[in-house]
Amino acid sequence: SAITTDMGTLTQEIDRFARDKKLEIETLKVREQYRKEFIGNVSHELKTPLFTVQGYILTLLDGAMNDEKIREKYLKRASKGVERLSYIVKDLDMITKLEVGDLSLKMEVFDIVELVKNVFEMFEMRASKNKITLTFDMDYSNPIYVKADKERIQQVLANLIVNSLKYGNLKGTTEVSIENLIKNKVIVRITDNGVGIEKAHLPRLFERFYRVDQSGARSEGGSGLGLSIVKHIIEAHDEKIYVESQFGVGSEFSFTLEKAE
Ligand code: ADP
């Protein structure tokens, strides 16, 4: 009967081994599919600005070059296309690093209030161009120290604030606030009263390349990678990111950070 028991255990072992292998193969298949989709998306995203740039250059070579006004206009547009391409490539580089787990965080203690102030300064011009007011719902002179990768959190803030400007209403507001949570956490909120997002899109919003088709939004450029970069960075910190939005009313993106003692 000892032999029978051994045989039983062996059969179980073999079964488990087979199950594990099957799972491994499934995982590999999913990964392969993911990789294919990624490459497909990348080429699709690059194609549009590339064709645009090519179009302007060909038109210039076709004779438009002789008209000084048109020449300048087309060259500016071509340059905008190249700029867009370089943004996409930069974002792709970042997302690849994040997904491969190649991006180690440089944790440090810093004042998040000051960082918000710096990012506001970076986008002041752009905000006033869109007639959007940037407001900080706090006292600038009261520091709040957090422990995180400062450069990456700056990027998170920048991406969220840029979005609020891109999808904000003319004469709207973007407001940033910071609130203490329990357990040594703070929550940073970026709220706008812009176009808002329909409920159906919310679950997929942080996926890379995912974009809501909004008239005018595409002309603002962007790669559809901004929010997925934001999510990666926040999750690399073991923190959480949330979105709440009402179509036609506005959106609120928020994320948590660890407070420094
Ligand atoms: P994009 O490069 O298109 O801005 P993101 O990943 O940053 O890519 O955002 C994905 C999509 O989410 C955007 O295309 C836009 O439709 C929507 N979105 C992001 N932020 C906002 C916002 N503040 N208000 C309305 N829609 C937004």
Automatic annotation (TrEMBL):
Annotated catalysed reactions: ATP + protein L-histidine = ADP + protein N-phospho-L-histidine
Enzyme class of the recorded protein, top EC level: transferase
Amino-acid biosynthesis listed as a keyword: no
Domain Histidine kinase: 41-261
Keyword Nucleotide-binding applies: yes
Keywords noted in UniProt: ATP-binding, Kinase, Membrane, Nucleotide-binding, Phosphoprotein, Transferase, Transmembrane, Transmembrane helix, Two-component regulatory system
GO molecular function, one term: ATP binding
Enzyme nomenclature, EC number: 2.7.13.3
Protein name according to UniProt: histidine kinase
Organism, as annotated: Hyunsoonleella aestuarii
Residues of the full protein shown: 87 to 347 of 347
